[in-house]
Amino acid sequence: MSKYTVLYNPKSNNGQGGAEAKALDTLLKGETVEYIDVFENGDTKAIIGSLQADDKLIIAGGDGSLNHFINDTYDMDITNEVFFFPTGSGNDFLSSVGEEKGKLIPLNSFLGKLPTVTVNGKDYRFINGVGYGIDGYCCEVGDKMRETTDKPINYTSIAIKGLLFHFKPVNAKVTVDGKVHRFKKVWLAPTMFGKYYGGGMIPTPDQKREDGTVSTMVYHNCGKLKALMVFPSIFKGEHVKHTEMISVFKGHRVTVEFDQPTALQIDGETILGVTSYTVKI
To answer: What distances in angstroms separate CA 151 from CA 13, 14, 89, 123, one per listed residue?
Structure first.
């Protein structure tokens, strides 16, 4: 008899991930369901290897849970049906594929050719985007806040305070398919595979994952007040109208180099003190 194996992240959605995952009891009423806490049993490969041919796998969590799954299994040929059940607080992948919470999202078609980002000599795959600049700074601050509070983290508030007081823009060299571009006063320099990141930001509104390319947006050459004034429009993708401070590039290989170490995030997972990253697809 087939069953559903649910890999759930109890820490997603500010600690509500376990309770939200149990909503599958109703959605899959009558089915055999096994729940596995990814923090208690994180051997994803062994779990997949133990599945029968007609068993189904569900990833219950947020964008970070998806990121861990695709990196844990990148060298596996998964023949079982895999679904995503979103229980995160941001769920940018969910937005990019036009779905809503409360549903099982088939994942297999999204697990094929994913981009790779190289940071500090290590390769990571990602399904949404790589954030570099104030978005990485926001993840760094949010991680520190999460260590001392169970309250939801307001990343928009962190970004505004960072723009006004704490984050210092950098100079950047951006190389896209061999062509070099140089920028001063860079606040953001993400590279996107999906359309959304950072809990609803749309840095590259024309990006389509089915094109087999990535898009890099550079938010540059402006002071803090102009940066702050334009920033809210990024949640609608309207910031790209400000061509004097927004540049967007599409390609297959992108290297972004900052002249100062800065936090970077990959699908919401933070890496500190980064001076460059390279994305390939």
So the answer is: 10, 7, 12, 32
The total of structural domains in the chain comes to: 2
- The residue segments making up the domain with residue 82 are 4-110
pLDDT digits (tens, 9 = 90+) for 112-138: 889 999 999 999 999 999 999 998 888
Cβ atoms of 281 and 116 closer than 8 Å = yes
Question: Read out DSSP for 33-93?
Answer: EEEEETTT---HHHHHHT--TT-EEEEEE-HHHHHHHHHHSTT----SEEEEEE-SSS-HH
Structure-block tokens of residue 62:
């947020």
* Alpha carbons 189 and 176: distance in angstroms, whole number: 12
Q: 81 near 57, Cβ under 8 Å? A: yes
pTM assigned to the model: 0.90
Q: Are residues 84 and 142 in the same domain?
A: no
Q: How many CB atoms lie within 10 A of CB 268?
A: 27
